[in-house]
Amino acid sequence: MALPSLAIPHRDAGDTNGVYAIEARDLNVYYGNFRAVKDINLKVHRRQITAFIGPSGCGKSTLLRAFNRMNELIPNARASGKVLFQGQNIYDPRVDPVEVRRRIGMVFQKPNPFPKSIYENVAWGARINGYLGNMDALVEQSLRRAALWDEVKDKLHQSGLSLSGGQQQRLCIARAIAVRPEIILMDEPASALDPIATLKIEELMRELSEEYTIIIVTHNMQQAARVSDFTAFLLMDEDRAGVLVEYGPTRQIFTRPKDKRTEDYITGRFG
């Protein structure tokens, strides 16, 4: 018999002095027998942008997905350790992962709007989560927050797939916002976009961080330096597991790193 869902407390209830939005404690993630990330300890600051940087294969995306249990959708994936959200371990077997993913939203590398209208793309998640308020107002508010309303307000019933790549990504952000998460995870959200669309996404992230905690994976050092408040540098260990080398304010990581490996990566000496 399935264990009952364990309700996660509402916003600002019982977390670490309100400073941190989510925390990893001795977190390990495995794919079968392979350990992808090892012994991660990390506190993510509330309503700030935190960037995960590091060479390909160092576990950045795996770590990101561990923060809302998305890795569980991959066969043979498992995690050990804790991820504390609102003072509660999201890996407690009584916690409903669907509820976790509602509270901790995700935006993927490649825009993935549903084959539905623009309106339905935004409304869908709220509707299946039982939203009973004014749906028109919620859709408009979400699209405004995603800086997309003015571009689509006259074509809400056209397919979301008819939009440009940058608009589709902002539609996916609006879809994530509509279910009212506390945290938004972004896995290289601008890597498939042109420079102008990338700039719009970066500007949007800065605006959203006034209301939401944002964690972003990026290979773009300039992007990390431009948009993030904190940066975590990961590297592959001898056993090919990703480890956290250094974490701190972005300015310090990029100008006065404490670990030579961080400096070498930032300056392009390796990676």
The CATH first-level class comes to Alpha Beta
CATH architecture identity: 3-Layer(aba) Sandwich
SSE-based structural type: alpha/beta
**Strand order, biggest sheet?**
6-7-8-3-9-10
Rg (CA only): 18 Å
List segments where confidence is low: pLDDT < 50 over at least 5 consecutive residues.
1-6, 8-15
Roughly how many Å apart are the termini? 47 Å
Relative helix content: 25-40%
List strands and helices in order, with pairings:
Elements: E1 20-31, E2 34-45, E3 49-53, H1 60-66, E4 77-85, E5 88-89, H2 97-103, E6 104-107, H3 118-128, H4 135-145, H5 149-152, H6 165-178, E7 183-187, H7 195-208, E8 213-217, H8 221-227, E9 230-236, E10 242-249, H9 250-255, H10 260-266
Parallel strand pairs: 3-8, 3-9, 6-7, 7-8
Antiparallel strand pairs: 1-2, 1-4, 4-5, 9-10
Helix pairs in contact: 3-4, 3-6, 4-6, 6-7
Structure summarized in a few sentences:
The protein is of the alpha/beta class and 271 residues long. The chain has helices spanning 60-66, 97-103, 118-128, 135-145, 149-152, 165-178, 195-208, 221-227, 250-255, 260-266; strands at 20-31, 34-45, 49-53, 77-85, 88-89, 104-107, 183-187, 213-217, 230-236, 242-249. The chain has one domain (20-266): 3-Layer(aba) Sandwich (Rossmann fold).
